[in-house]
């Protein structure tokens, strides 16, 4: 089975501070509009058009507001869960996600604020792992600098694809950001393969208001 884990549990701190600085009313970044749909729904639209068979969305901060939007989305293969404690790092959110998939297999891990990551790129990430001889020992990740087989995980993050085995082996009891954990994997001999983005806009996470404006232009 190929599952997707979409993380939507963050504090939204940087966007909130940016909106306050600009004199704007507060809106959670995942609920900002992109051509008639919230950011998180645009991300899910893309994820659900890939090869995945199940999608787990993990909530944390502002879970009640985001859950309402997701429940109205009405897609059968989406499972919505929440972190028991919202004050956790990304590793715990991903672990919660992988612990709630139906069965072990490949996991496409995407941040909910990445609506610009194309269906094509996500499928390429999946295919790279599918075609590797040892699927339990490779991470296929969207390249931010070098592509191909990587010697460093510096600056890397989501989206990526790996086997659930790796997530269950490396995430427990870490409560940390993702990049140091990826570094631990590389040090232990896990293979990393960087897949080039279709376009540079795919590398944009919506953290600040200006990020949102850039992404909105891509949807015009």
Summarize the structure.
With 220 residues, this protein is an alpha/beta fold. Helix content is 35%, strand content 20%.
Please tell me about this protein's structure:
The chain is α/β, with parallel strands linked by helices. It has eight helices and ten strands. It has helices at residues 13-21, 39-47, 63-73, 90-98, 119-130, 164-170, 178-187, 209-218; strands at 2-8, 33-34, 37-38, 54-59, 78-82, 106-111, 138-142, 148-149, 160-163, 191-195.
Topology:
Elements: E1 2-8, H1 13-21, E2 33-34, E3 37-38, H2 39-47, E4 54-59, H3 63-73, E5 78-82, H4 90-98, E6 106-111, H5 119-130, E7 138-142, E8 148-149, E9 160-163, H6 164-170, H7 178-187, E10 191-195, H8 209-218
Parallel strand pairs: 1-4, 1-6, 4-5, 7-10
Antiparallel strand pairs: 2-3, 6-9, 7-9, 8-10
List SSEs in N-to-C order. EHEEHEHEHEHEEEHHEH
Number of domains: 1
- The residue fraction in helices comes out at 25-40%
Supply the CATH superfamily name: Spore Coat Polysaccharide Biosynthesis Protein SpsA, Chain A
* Low-confidence runs: none
Overall CATH class: Alpha Beta
Q: What share of residues are in beta strands?
A: 15-25%
CATH fold name: Spore Coat Polysaccharide Biosynthesis Protein SpsA, Chain A
Radius of gyration: 16 Å
Number of helical runs? 8
The CATH architecture term is Alpha-Beta Complex
Assign an overall shape: globular
**Residue-averaged pLDDT:** 94
Features:
220 residues; alpha/beta; Spore Coat Polysaccharide Biosynthesis Protein SpsA, Chain A; 8-stranded mixed sheet; two-stranded antiparallel sheet; 8 helices
